[in-house]
Amino acid sequence: WKRIRINLDTIAENTTPDTSFDFFGHTMKYPFFAGPVGAVKLHYGDKLDDVAYNDILVSACADAGIAAFTGDGTNPAVMQAACHSIAAKGGFGIPTVKPWDVNTLREKFELVQASGCFAVAMDIDAAGLPFLQNLQPPAGSKTVEELAQVIKNAGKPFIVKGIMTVNAARKALEAGASGIVVSNHGGRVLDQCPASAEVLYEIAQAVGGKMKIFVDGGIRTGVDIFKALCLGADGVLIARPYVTAVYGGGAEGVILYTEKLGAELADTMKMCGAAKLSDLSEKYLFRPSNPFLS
Description:
The protein has ten helices and ten strands.
């Protein structure tokens, strides 16, 4: 994202930029989400487990006007608690399931549907995580036909996370997905994989307007969010910084970080002459130094 430059232009109407975002018929204050994170106790310290982390995150994000994607795990209590937290906030949250077997997914989707959530996601690239291949319940890759059945069973707008090629995006669309997340799982599932910023534009050109397009991976500021939206994303996911916010400041930390990102995005839009999110396009990006526009 740092390699992409933006065009400054303040000869424009003097208005306050509108950062509001439509998410499957529900209005969010900003076009970004807290991304799904699992095993926080193992990776970030024993102050919190997944249940406590998701509860703080879901509630605080909803209070800040955005939604959180929640993680999944082999412990059924994680999804149960996440869906309970989402239900308590009127459906503000996106449960994210692993690519489990059919029976396990059926159980997960019962919880998802009871939560009243606006959408459900699957990080399908988790099929490549070694530890999932050696644990129960089983998880793995899905064909287009299998994914279509999963989406039908979910009964909610379905977002496929872990898309890195135009071909994969088209297959997700064929299967009936309502959205995708352009993501390489933090670079942890395949060495020598391109960055999400490198492939976002061509994927957006191929399936934009036909489904919602989200992106994650190294997005840290409102300026980064602006760049992603100009490259064709409808919204972005930010994961690890929200872990820091929860661990360091609890609900208050989440709200402060969200407001910081939102203010940075609005300021960038103002300085580039963009009044609303639908205005954003590649015209706001400086082409000579931008390697990600063809």
